[in-house]
Amino acid sequence: MLQGIIDFTVPSGGSDGKAIHLYVNEDIADLAQYGIGVANNGGGTDGQEYTFPTAAPTAGQHILVVRSVEAMDAYMNASAIFDHVFVDEGGSISQNGDDAIELYFLGGVVEVFGDVDVDGTGEAWEYLDSWAYKVNGEWTYGGVNCTDGSTTSCDSGCPYPFADCTGDDLAAYLSAEGGWRYQYEVAGYRGVGPGDAMGADWWNASPYEDFNNATFPNPSGVNNGLVDDIMFFTVDGGFTFDTGEDATIMGKKPEVDAAFDPDGTNAYDADNEYNEYGTIH
Questions:
Q1: DSSP letter string, 119-136
Q2: 40, 64, 82, 105: which is deepest, by most CB within 10 A?
Q3: What's the rounded Cα separation, in Å, for the pair 184 and 91?
Q4: 253-260 vs 167-175: helix axis angle to the nearest 10?
């Protein structure tokens, strides 16, 4: 099934940042029975344009079809985190952030991202210079142009959810300008995840007004505006979460643990098969 639609802005430029991410939900005897089509600019289906090579991926594996292995390795170490990486030599993987994607099996469409008859510019599913990523069957988005100016996915304003950012990289992102904003409050440190009117900028929780949060009121009365998630750091080194209205925060379990729970005090099992935290307990 389609798992991610990628239109990164990578340092090498051009089409090097374009890719399609698939998740294998059951064993596949012959991957060559599957293909992809990119419906450009809302002009309707262009049919199957890319056919996978012969392979036999197994359930639980992740596949990435790229225009440039070198660019994707440099940007998010793709060859290390994906089970299969295939190069589209013909240039069919050509989405520009406003194009629908079709997944084919034996010549027929079995899944569609977006709308093949609609140009995605300004639509909820636009992913220009960004990404779309499926979480529990629902598409989430990094935010238009969120990878512009970045060197790696981990130092962008919207790390790709499947990217394996190290604990150091994640901690640096959280504390950097544009990441989590650290500030002194009566109850200790607060890390506030950024959000905006269109959606959250990090880990994809719905944005909400910090000032109006009754569950964890802001001790200083400062209105931080639209935020994603909040972490409360206590003097004993512990922390609690306020995840907002949707009660979720998405992130890779190893990196979240490394950054915020290195001794395992608050550890619990990941919430999905991708080894991510999804619901904070």
A1: --TTSTT--TTSEEEEET
A2: 64
A3: 51
A4: 70
The answer to pTM > 0.85 is: no
Report d(CA 117, CA 38) in Å as an integer: 12
* Residue 213 Cα to chain centre, angstroms: 26
Domains of the chain: 2-141 (2.60.40.1260), 167-279 (no CATH)
Task: Give the residue, 175 or 240, on which the prediction is more confident.
Answer: 240
Residue keyed to tokens 């994906």: 82
**Segment 53-84, tens digit of pLDDT:** 999 999 999 999 999 999 999 999 999 999 99
C-beta of residue 281 within 8 angstroms of C-beta of residue 249: no
* Total residues belonging to the chain: 281
Q: How far apart are CA 56 and CA 120, in angstroms?
A: 33
Q: What CA–CA distance (Å, rounded) separates 174 from 157?
A: 10
